[in-house]
């Protein structure tokens, strides 16, 4: 009962040693869309994002800037918060792995897992990429370099504590079998399962070569491996009294490069700690920029200011989720964004709102019996279908459907020649149709939708769709999307 009508969505916690860019924005907007949607449906929603602040990489970068790690990370957090504000992202908590409650919690868990006998001391030797904060095996390397960063990789040998990952191989395989949606989209599943079947090695989970991390409670010379620290943010954020009901997470949204950490390490840590496992991990693809991977080292980073500058926050949000299916890779180009801004947002949605509001200002509206309303034929289907698509993370298809409905409304204006007939009843129906499209679009483009709702005098909520539109005096809408 306690878990009824709750929805908990998370983004990865980001490394703050970089300004937020399109890759961070992509996951965080997706979480925002889902959070808005489930709030709409009356769910109790918890939307968590934040930053991953420990590790050697941060310690090194801070040193270069002549700052302590803490001062350094403190100086970077506002950049993330400002960026999320520009994109209208309404998260409930911005967690930092340096937050006191999180640090305390991770130590408690470590002690628990240690007492259980799942952590032991040994030596670790391997190839370590500081950028990834991850060890690689000889097999993973590409010409002696990190497979992700293509940079030279160092071989490390150090005393380390190990987590008995191998012990969880069969339980993980059993869990994947019993929870076929856990790894989503389904095309990402086989790779993980096959690798787990090949066998799991115990995982080094501590470092003694640097200090910037959470000390192991049973050996203060060591700090915990960043992934053990980072992954637990999802759970520690729910340890507040009024947040406990949100665990297990309904979905962890991540990029496809961190699937392994989230679908193998994370559930294994939780199994060891005796904590219920999350329901789903959904991994999206990568954006390329004119067909090349977006990366800082190659100088192809689209930061949030640039993204928003092209055509505004709503157009950016719209483009990212309309252009490619969520889950797959896509290519970003300014031209493609501008094209969708002009052809879809301005010409279709903007035009409809502008024409109907202008005609309604001139002729007024007259209520039509709700049962007989023509656009209503579409309404029930559109709401049901869009709802299903959003809940399956098929955002592009949901937007496609809403825009097909907008096309129908534009066609209506054309077919009925309303500028000649001045039919108040037809205008009422069109305004009702606009209300529907606006309400369904709100999770995607909230700012614009709020402007439309003011023009036509309706509230943005799903329950509003069950009532007839109130007839008010309408003034022609200002331009919603200026063409570029
Ligand atoms: Zn790397």
Care to give the gist of this entry?
The protein is an alpha/beta fold. Helices cover 47% and strands 16% of the residues. It has helices at residues 22-40, 56-64, 69-86, 100-115, 169-178, 189-198, 226-231, 233-236, 259-273, 304-311, 313-322, 334-363, 376-391, 395-416, 418-421, 424-441, 446-456; strands at residues 6-14, 44-51, 93-96, 119-129, 134-136, 154-163, 183-184, 203-204, 206-207, 215-216, 219-224, 251-255, 281-284, 287-289, 292-293, 330-332.
Description of the molecule:
The protein is α/β, with parallel strands linked by helices and 484 residues long. Helices cover 47% and strands 16% of the residues. A six-stranded parallel β-sheet has the order 3-2-1-12-13-7, sandwiched between helices. Strands 5-4-6-8 form a four-stranded antiparallel β-sheet, covered by helices on one side. A three-stranded antiparallel β-sheet has the order 9-11-10. Helix 12 (334-363) crosses helix 14 and helix 13 runs antiparallel to helix 14. The radius of gyration is 25 Å and the shape is elongated. The structure holds zinc ion. Zinc ion is lined by residues 129, 131-132, 146, 148-149.
């Amino acid at each position: 009962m306690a878990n009824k009508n709750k929805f908990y969505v998370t983004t990865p916690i980001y490394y703050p040693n970089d300004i937020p860019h399109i890759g961070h924005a992509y996951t965080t907007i997706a979480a925002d869309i889902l959070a808005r949607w489930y709030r709409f449906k009356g769910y109790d929603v918890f939307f968590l994002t934040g930053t991953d602040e420990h590790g050697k990489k941060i310690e090194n970068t801070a040193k270069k800037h002549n700052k302590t790690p803490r001062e350094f990370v403190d100086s970077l957090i506002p950049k993330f918060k400002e960026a999320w504000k520009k994109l209208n992202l309404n998260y409930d908590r911005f967690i930092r792995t340096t937050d006191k409650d999180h640090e305390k919690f991770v130590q408690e868990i470590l002690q628990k897992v240690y007492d259980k006998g799942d952590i032991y001391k040994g030596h670790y030797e391997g190839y370590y990429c500081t950028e990834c904060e991850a060890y690689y095996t000889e097999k993973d390397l590409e010409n002696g370099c990190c497979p992700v960063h293509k940079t030279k990789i160092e071989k490390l040998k150090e005393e380390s504590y190990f987590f008995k990952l191998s012990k969880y191989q069969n339980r993980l395989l059993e869990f994947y079998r019993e929870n076929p949606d856990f790894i989503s989209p389904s095309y990402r599943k086989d790779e993980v399962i096959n690798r787990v079947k090949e066998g799991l090695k115990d995982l080094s989970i501590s470092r003694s070569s640097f200090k910037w991390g959470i000390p192991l409670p049973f050996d203060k010379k060591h700090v915990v491996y960043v992934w053990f620290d980072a992954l637990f943010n999802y759970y520690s954020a729910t340890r507040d009294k009024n947040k406990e009901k949100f665990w297990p997470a309904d979905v962890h949204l991540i990029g496809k490069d961190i699937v392994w950490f989230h679908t193998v390490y994370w559930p294994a840590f939780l199994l060891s700690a005796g904590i219920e496992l999350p329901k789903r991990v959904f991994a999206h693809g990568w954006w390329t920029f004119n067909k090349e991977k977006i990366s800082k080292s190659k100088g192809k980073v689209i930061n949030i200011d640039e993204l928003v500058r092209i055509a505004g926050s709503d157009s950016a949000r719209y483009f990212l989720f309309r252009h490619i299916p969520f889950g797959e890779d896509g290519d970003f180009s300014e031209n493609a964004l501008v094209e969708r801004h002009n052809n879809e947002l301005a010409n279709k949605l903007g035009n409809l709102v502008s024409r109907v509001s202008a005609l309604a200002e001139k002729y007024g509206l007259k209520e039509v019996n709700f049962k007989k309303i023509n656009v209503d034929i579409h309404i029930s289907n559109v709401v049901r279908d869009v709802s299903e698509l959003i809940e399956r993370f098929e955002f592009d298809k949901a937007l496609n459907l809403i825009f097909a409905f907008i096309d129908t409304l534009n066609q209506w204006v054309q077919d009925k020649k309303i500028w000649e007939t001045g039919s108040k009843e037809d205008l009422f129906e069109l305004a009702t149709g606009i209300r529907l499209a606006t309400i369904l679009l709100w999770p995607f483009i909230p700012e614009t939708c709020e402007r439309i709702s003011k023009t036509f005098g309706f509230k943005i909520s799903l329950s509003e769709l069950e009532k007839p539109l109130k007839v008010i005096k309408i003034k022609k809408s200002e331009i919603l999307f200026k063409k570029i």
